[in-house]
Amino acid sequence: MGTLNWTNQPSFQARLLDSGIIHNLGWNLPPEELAHVPEHWLMYPEPDKSLHLLLGMVYVFFFMASMIGNGIVLWVFTTAKSLRTASNMFVVNLALCDFVMMLKSPIFLYNAFHYGFEMGHFGCQIFAGMGSMTGIGAGMTNAAIAYDRYTTITRPFDGKLTRTKAMFIILFIWFYTVPWTVMPMMEIWGRFAPEGFLTTCSFDYLTRTFDNRLFVGAIFTFSYVIPMSMIIYFYSQIVSKVFSHEKALREQAKKMNVESLRANQQQNAESAEMRIAKAAITICFLYVASWTPYAVESLIGAYGNQALLTPGVSMIPACACKLVACIDPYIYAISHPKFRIELQKRLPWLAIKEKDVSDTQSVATEQSAAQPQQAQT
Fold it and tell me: What per-residue string of b and e applies to 137-160 under the rule 16 or more CB within 10 Å gives b?
C-alpha cells in the first residue's frame, strides 16, 4: 500500500496504466520533461492525491502568512523615519528575501493541485532560482544581523554601522548569491531539478558525477557553513561580552554597597537593545533549524544512502525552509519596540500596547522644567 509514501521502498517494475493501479512518479510526463527528473524519484509510486492537496493547503497558509507579515514589515520599516537606521536595513533585506521566496508559491500550488510536474522544466527553473537567491540571501543577511548586533553590543561607542557601510554589505550579499543561482540555472555547474513529489525544485543533489558532487559540497560550504559559522561566532561573542559586563557591574556594586549601578533610563535603553538582540538571536536560530534539514538532505543525496530520501521525507525540508519565511516578520513585530510603536500608529485596531520611551522622557523633562517656574510664581 502506498498510503502516505513517507517510507515506501522503491518499486523497480514498470507500472501499468490501467485504471485503479498505482503508477510511479513521472509516469505521465513527456520524454522532454522526463529527462530533467532524477531517476531516483522515478522508482517510487506517486503519492495519493490527498497528500498533494494537503501540501497545497499548507502552502496557501505559508503564502498568506508571509505576504501579510513581510509586507507589513517592508511597509513600516521603509516609511517610518524612526526606523530608517543602518541596523534596520538588514531587517528590510531579510523581509525582502522572505517575501520574494514565497512569491514562488503559485508555481508549487499549480503543480500540487494538478498532482505533479505540471509547470514543467521552465517553472522548475523559476521556482529553484528564486529559492536559491532568497535562501542564500537570507542566510547571509542573518549573518550580517549577527555582525551588526555584535559590533553594537560589544563596541557601543564606535561599533555602530553607518548606512553607507550597511548598503555595501547588502549589495555584497546579493552579488554573493548570483553565482549559486546562475550556474545551476544555466547548467554551467550543477543544475536545478524537481524533487520529492515533483511539485518543488531545488539544486540536483542526487546525480553522483564528480562535478555534481563537487558542486553540492561547494554550495553546502558557501550557503550553509560560512553563514552558520559567522552566526555562531558573533552570538557567542555577544553572550561572552554580556556575561563579563554583568559580572563586572555586580562586583563594582558590591564594592560600593549598592544593589545596582544602573539608572532607570539606562535600564530602559538596554532593555530595548536586548529585546532587539533576542529577536535577532531567535530569527537566526530559526534559520539554523529550518535550513539544517536541507543541508543534511543534500549531503545524504550526494554522499550517503539515497534510499533514506523517499519523496515524502524530502518534502519535510522543503516545508521547513518556507515556514521560517512566515515566522520571521512576526518575531520582529513582537520583539522590536520601535516597530511596535510605528505599527500601533498605523494600525490602531491591532490594539498594540507599547510605551514610547522618548515620549515618556519628554513628558518627564517638561514636568521637571515646569516645577521651578511654579516655585517662582
Answer: bbbbbbbbbbbbbbbbbeeeeeee
CB atoms within 10 A of CB 25: 25
The string of pLDDT tens digits covering residues 119-135 is: 999 999 999 999 999 99
Contact predicate 293/317, CB 8 Å: yes
pTM: 0.81
Q: Which residue has the cell 555562531?
A: 232
Q: At residue 8, what are phi and psi to the nearest 5 degrees? A: -60, 140
49: its cell numbers: 492525491
Q: What is the DSSP string of 24-80?
A: BTTTT--HHHHTTS-HHHHTSBPPPHHHHHHHHHHHHHHHHHHHHHHHHHHHHHHH-
Q: What is the DSSP string of 223-266?
A: IIIHHHHHHHHHHHHHHHHHHHHHHHHHHHHHHTT-S----HHH
CA-based nearest residue to 204, from 191, 217, 213:
191
CA pair distance 319, 58, nearest whole angstrom = 9
